[in-house]
Design goal:
The complex is a heterodimer. By secondary structure, chain A is an alpha/beta fold. Chain A has helices at 16-27, 37-56, 71-85, 101-111, 130-136, 159-169, 240-275, 304-313, 333-337, 342-345, 362-379, and strands at 4-5, 65-68, 92-96, 116-120, 141-145, 172-176, 195-199, 210-214, 281-283, 294-299, 316-317, 348-352. Chain A folds into two domains: 4-11 and 258-379, Aspartate Aminotransferase, domain 1, CATH 3.90.1150.10; 16-252, 3-Layer(aba) Sandwich (Aspartate Aminotransferase, domain 2). The chains are: A alpha/beta, B alpha+beta.
């Protein structure tokens, strides 16, 4: 049975072209801090990767990019490092209610150091409420964090407008672009973004690298002291293979994004229109302001982990925001933030498309979803189906 | 994401005794949709023996599998024997459940007990 992988938001296969490109750096020695020649080759590889990543987001220069071990690290440095370095400006941080846990938890951590942390609500589509944002930002708000697009519901945020509000009233805007980068064009200069997080794996690079863009002039301090690599912000010997791969993945993403996104959009729209026909099935997130590879739904009367397990029986891998599939056994904070009740949030299904998907797969996916929903509703005491 | 045993997946894939019994001798309901698990159970009893049992469950893989398993364990037993079936018995029969599922989705024994208690109340048994 040929499988259909539809969970690219949680993990992506690595592009073989990327591995081919960076393979030499995996096997060979060469510390970028060493002055002999092949140490310097490693250094050049990192600098080349820096340029490629900078180009993906139209950064001012390659110097704005700091490589990290993951998007979580980039979020921590971007939020805690910026807040603590600029503590004289105030002691407030702000984030939307649908941020990734690796944004929310560093902000919560600042509370221990006497900071105040507030969250800006979103509407039923997951768009940040701009009036609330205006009211909640004060001159003491050092870091405001809003994601470029949400990984669970696919909604793209009006970052340019958010940036204007943040800079009018507060200080720095951090943007987690993990879900959006490589899918939609990002221009940090046009959007006037101060700090932006990227992940290697979400660009078809290997796990083990992330990046933080820091706008020239924005001051950030280390949150993990050590040997001073990456401008002192991410100490520890560089993972050259992962970094070189991330650079190459960013280059390919920039080159292929337009065509690939158009292709995925057709698959996405076909899935949305077919799955929406199922009785009491609803799209979650924004109907038009959404990522080109993202289709997310909820179904009344059934539970998401069961949907996931049942779809896996058809060889199709999806994700869910159901409490029952999480470590904490709590329903997705994103689905609750867009106003869903707990019992509604339990029945969610998230489809994230990638290069292995095509339009020919749509009928099989739709049929599998229909049969899954039908079967689980037959089991469910909440459904009228007998 | 929990890792389920083959037996759990078998009972999730092919759950036994799904459905409702019209005019049951006992009916029970535990859990609620807010926390993600809801089970309804029906029994037929003749001479104190459970002769038929059916369930409907809203919930995760282990909620469905434990419901199915408890009906298999209970059918043919006397109501007193069935009352002795514990949550752990159900989990053991399924070759175990992931630790985080032991308390939240292992409601099937509770559903069985609630169903038998309701049967007893109808028949004025203590």
């Amino acid at each position: 049975m040929e499988g259909i992988y539809l969970d690219h938001a949680s993990s992506m296969p690595v592009d073989l072209r990327v591995i081919d490109f960076a393979k030499p750096f995996l096997a060979e020695a060469g510390n970028p801090s060493s002055l002999y020649e092949f140490g310097q080759t490693s250094k050049q590889a990192i600098e080349e990767a820096r340029s490629k990543v900078a180009e993906l987001i139209n950064a001012e220069s390659e110097k704005t990019i700091v490589f990290t071990g993951s998007a979580t690290e980039a979020n921590n440095i971007g939020i805690r490092g910026t807040a603590l370095r600029n503590i004289k400006e105030g002691k407030e941080v702000l984030a939307s209610t649908i941020e990734h846990i690796s944004v929310i938890n560093p902000m919560k951590d600042l509370i221990k150091n006497g900071w105040s942390f507030n969250q800006v609500p979103v509407d039923k589509f997951g768009i940040v409420d701009l009036d609330s944002l205006k009211k909640m930002i004060t001159k003491n708000t050092v870091v405001t964090s809003v994601m470029y697009a949400n990984n669970e519901i696919g909604t793209i945020e009006p970052i340019k407008k958010i940036s204007e509000i943040v800079h009018k009233n507060g200080k720095y805007l951090h943007v987690d672009a993990t879900a959006a980068a490589g899918r939609i064009p990002i221009d940090v200069q046009n959007d006037e973004i101060d700090l932006l997080t990227l992940s290697s794996n979400d660009l078809y690079g290997p796990r083990g690298a992330g990046a933080l863009y820091i706008k020239p002039g924005v001051k950030v301090q280390s949150v993990m002291p050590g040997g001073g690599q990456e401008r002192g912000l991410r100490s520890g010997t560089e993972n050259i293979f992962a970094i070189a791969s991330m650079g190459e993945a960013a280059r390919i993403a920039k080159q292929e994004m337009e065509n690939e996104s158009e292709r995925l959009k057709k698959i996405r729209d076909s899935l949305i229109s077919e799955i929406n026909k199922i009785d009491e099935a609803y799209l979650t997130g924004h109907p038009t302001q959404r990522l080109p590879h993202h289709a997310s739904f909820r179904f009344n009367f059934i539970e998401g982990e069961s949907i996931l397990l049942n779809m896996d029986m058809y060889g199709i891998q999806i994700a869910t925001g159901s409490a029952c599939s999480s470590k904490t056994l709590e329903a997705s904070h994103v689905l609750l933030a867009i106003g869903l009740k707990h019992e509604e949030a339990h029945g969610s299904m998230v489809v994230t498309l990638g290069r292995s998907n095509n339009l020919e797969q749509v009928p099989k996916i739709v049929k599998s979803v229909e049969e899954t929903v039908q079967r689980l509703r037959q089991l469910s005491p909440l459904s009228k189906l007998r | 994401m929990p890792v389920y045993s083959k037996k759990v997946m078998d009972h999730f894939t092919n759950p036994r005794n799904v459905g409702v019994i019209e005019n049951p001798d006992g009916f029970g309901k535990v859990g609620n949709p807010v926390c993600g698990d809801l089970m309804e159970m029906y029994i037929k009893v003749e001479n104190d023996i459970i002769t038929d049992i059916k369930f409907k469950t809203f919930g995760c893989g282990s909620a469905i599998a434990t419901s199915s398993m408890v009906t298999e364990l209970a059918i043919g037993k006397t109501i007193d024997e069935a009352l002795e079936i514990t949550r752990n018995d159900v989990a053991d029969e399924l070759d175990g459940l992931p630790p985080q599922k032991m308390h939240c989705s292992n409601l099937a024994a509770d559903a069985l007990h609630a169903t038998i208690e309701e049967y007893k109340r109808r028949n004025n048994k203590k």
